[in-house]
Design brief:
The chain is an alpha+beta fold and 190 residues long. Helix content is 27%, strand content 25%. It has 5 helices and 10 strands; from the N terminus they run H-E-E-H-E-E-E-E-E-H-H-E-E-E-H. The chain has helices spanning 2-5, 28-40, 93-97, 108-117, 164-183; strands spanning 9-14, 17-18, 50-51, 54-60, 65-70, 79-83, 86-90, 131-132, 137-142, 145-150. The strands form 3 sheets. It has a 5-stranded antiparallel β-sheet, with helices on one face. It has a 3-stranded antiparallel β-sheet with strand order 7-6-8. The protein has a two-stranded antiparallel ribbon with strand order 2-3. Strand 6 (79-83) and strand 7 form a beta hairpin. The radius of gyration is 19 Å and the shape is globular. The model is unreliable at 1-5 (pLDDT under 50).
């Protein structure tokens, strides 16, 4: 039905909260609608102002473009695999494992990394062909082509010139502000 109408669709997991240019104290759906409006226009700048833990899949049939998006820390995983002309994605690896259509061939390098270091590097999974989005990653799907890009670089943050006491107070204030933004009017959470 979405395809027939040419309407875009976004499926999120988690809560993308926009800071800076985004809606300040709005509900989750307002933040998501703001992101989708931007993506509909082919822009990706709002992700630079996204915080919170989230992942999302977006599809715009009019442009025949899809996006898979991870948060800045990659705390909400999003796994994907290409099988023929289809891209399967899920926020839990077990979902892709349960699909008969998805081949489950062992990725020896990733399994070695997992046994040696506790996790695979570079978005690897125990299965060849199944990848997990990395922090700040956007996979753009268009005309059967997948392209990976990043919307934020942690090494682009300039060191703070503030003294330690001031930096600690600033960090604490930002932490409290982030918790308040996340809780909104919820009085039951401690």
């Amino acid at each position: 039905e979405v395809q027939k109408l040419g309407l875009a669709a976004t499926t999120p997991a988690g809560e993308p909260l926009l800071t800076g240019e985004g809606p300040a104290d709005a509900e989750r759906d307002t933040h998501l609608a703001s992101l989708q409006d931007e993506w509909d226009r082919g822009e990706r700048q709002a992700l630079r102002h996204a915080s919170g833990t989230f992942c999302a899949a977006y599809y715009y049939p009019r442009e025949e473009i899809g996006l898979l998006v991870a948060d800045r820390l990659g705390l909400r995983p999003l796994y994907y695999v290409v099988v023929g002309d289809l891209v399967y994605f899920a926020s839990a690896l077990r979902i892709l494992e349960a699909l008969a259509e998805v081949p489950k061939k062992v990725d020896v390098l990733s399994v070695t990394e997992m046994t040696s270091f506790g996790y695979p590097f570079c978005g690897g999974t125990p299965y060849a062909g199944i990848r997990m989005l990395e922090p700040c990653e956007v996979v753009t799907i268009r005309d059967g082509d997948l392209r990976s890009s990043g919307y934020f670089r942690w090494d682009s943050i300039t060191p703070s010139p503030e003294r330690e006491e001031v930096a600690l107070r600033t960090t604490y204030a930002k932490f409290r502000s982030a918790v308040r933004r996340r809780l909104r009017n919820d009085k039951t959470v401690f």
